[in-house]
Amino acid sequence: MDFDLTEDQEIIRRSAAEFADEVLKPSASRIDANSEFPAENIKAAARLGFLGVLVPEEFGGSGLGHMELAIILEEVNRGCASTGVTLSVHNSLVCSPIVRFGSDAQKKKYLPKLSSGEWLGAYALSEPNAGTDAASISLSARESGSRFVLNGTKTMISSGSKADVVIVMARTGDAPGAKGITAFIVEKGTQGFKPGAKEDKLGIRGSDTSELIFEDCAVPASAILGRRGEGFKIAMSTLDGGRIGIGAQSVGIAQACLDESVRYAKERKQFGQPIASFQAIQWKIAEMGTRIDASRLLVRRAAFLRDADRPHTRESAMAKLFASRTANLCAFEAMQVHGGVGYTKEFAVERLFRDARITEIYEGTTEVQNIVISRKLLE
Ligand code: CAA
Q1: What distances in angstroms separate CA 202 from CA 13, 33, 259, 351, 352, one per listed residue?
Q2: Its pTM surpasses 0.85
Q3: What is the separation, in whole angstroms, between the first and last Cα of the chain?
């Protein structure tokens, strides 16, 4: 067993770290304050090959795996979590299912544009009455000749109003629950499909989170991703990958909290000495560092298993569960290390505290990860 990154992975990590330090960190606070979608960051990420990480080279991608994606996402999220989640969704919830389940025609049509950044992707599962209980979605796709007509609403969709391509889970049959759900690829501009209200959020304020409305939106049968009726399995196995991405995002946010805490603890003096010399602070730093290392190892184990095509549902849920809790613990302690100034917008930890919160909610809450893990352990 080898815990080191390969030479190529280290080059990728360095390029993502440089991007985070030189481009993302300096603009993160402005993006947050203005709820500004980080379009320029996404373009710059595309130039680095970060929009087609999982896409084979023959379709214009970088031909890499979830391990490399996790390495990139950790660094990107250390700089800006709004940019980070946009990249995570695009790569792991949109490109990945098209690579895994798409027809040749779908791969040729979508992957080159998604990889180059010409098109951005979104993944639409949640509905007003179907969040954690994802199998209860009701958006309908009624068969009509050679087409399917979509009616219903999706909610809380990351990149929803910015996306050019959306993977939409819809009900194509009368079968209840997970059966009878089919995944569709729907393009922006399709008649009857429009974004609705945009959410005003606590954190990751630069990321776009929107409602999507489908009113008699007709798509051809060729828009089906994978097989009819297999949509729930596609959605869940896609989230097995997405959760590794959110785990990596959590590690990045947690690392930023630790970096800020170490820097401040060495600078800030109280009782005539840097606060880093006090055990109360040292123990916080030690716990943060240990939990971050454990989270990173869990994320990389899950990525390794997914890349090796081995079962990883439990491991991906564990990585997301532990890393997201770590991000929140580190954000809490980082603010504690900073004291009063950490509660102000002058210091990055205030934004990190707000950004960390969502990692325990989206792509399956902490409680959902516990369901997934315990079911696997009790099988
Ligand atoms: N891979 C493949 N198939 C899977 C699977 C997986 N990981 N998990 C379940 N399935 C299959 C099952 O084998 C089963 O198939 P059979 O009927 O053939 O046996 C079928 O799917 C139904 O599975 P379950 O009985 O486990 O379904 P459930 O209704 O009990 O699922 C749940 C419960 C785990 C809570 C699930 O609903 C869930 O994960 N909910 C959370 C949803 C979620 O994560 N939403 C995130 C939205 S996207 C997002 O957040 C993106 C963003 O903004 C950043």
Answers
A1: 29, 11, 23, 9, 11
A2: yes
A3: 28
Ligand 1, residue 368: give the atom nearest the CA.
Answer: 35
In-domain check, residue 146: yes
The percent of residues above 70 in pLDDT, for the chain, comes to 100
Atom of ligand 1 nearest to the CA of 178: 22
Q: Which of 199, 245, 205 is nearest to 355 (CA)?
A: 205
Listed as ranges, residues in the chain with pLDDT below 70 are none
**For residue 105, what pLDDT is reported?**
98
CATH number of the domain enclosing 159: 2.40.110.10
Per-residue model confidence (pLDDT) at position 175: 84
Pick from 91, 132, 154, 233 the residue to mutate for probing ligand 1's pocket: most ligand atoms within 8 Å of its CB: 233
pLDDT of residue 1: 83
* 146 and 112 within one domain: no
Give the pLDDT of residue 173. Answer: 83
Q: With contact defined as beta carbons under 8 Å apart, do 295 and 301 qualify?
A: no
Residue 317 lies in a domain: yes
pLDDT digits (tens, 9 = 90+) for 26-35: 999 999 999 9
178 alpha carbon to ligand 1 midpoint, in Å?
8
pLDDT computed for residue 99 by the predictor: 98
**Ligand 1 pocket: which of 236, 238, 249, 310 to mutate (most atoms <8 Å of CB)?**
236
Which positions are catalytic? Answer: 363
User: The domain that contains 38 carries what CATH number?
Assistant: 1.10.540.10
Please give the pLDDT value at position 185.
Answer: 98
Beta bridge pairs of residue 148: 143, 219
Q: What is the whole-number distance in angstroms between the Cα of residue 134 and the centre of ligand 1? A: 7
Owning domain of residue 88: 7-120
Distance 245 CA to ligand 1 centre (A): 17
Structural domain ending residue among the three candidates 168, 199, 228: 228
The tally of domains found in the chain comes to 3
221 CA → ligand 1 middle, Å: 24
Distance CA 5, CA 49 (A): 19
* Statement to judge: residues 297 and 362 lie in one domain: yes
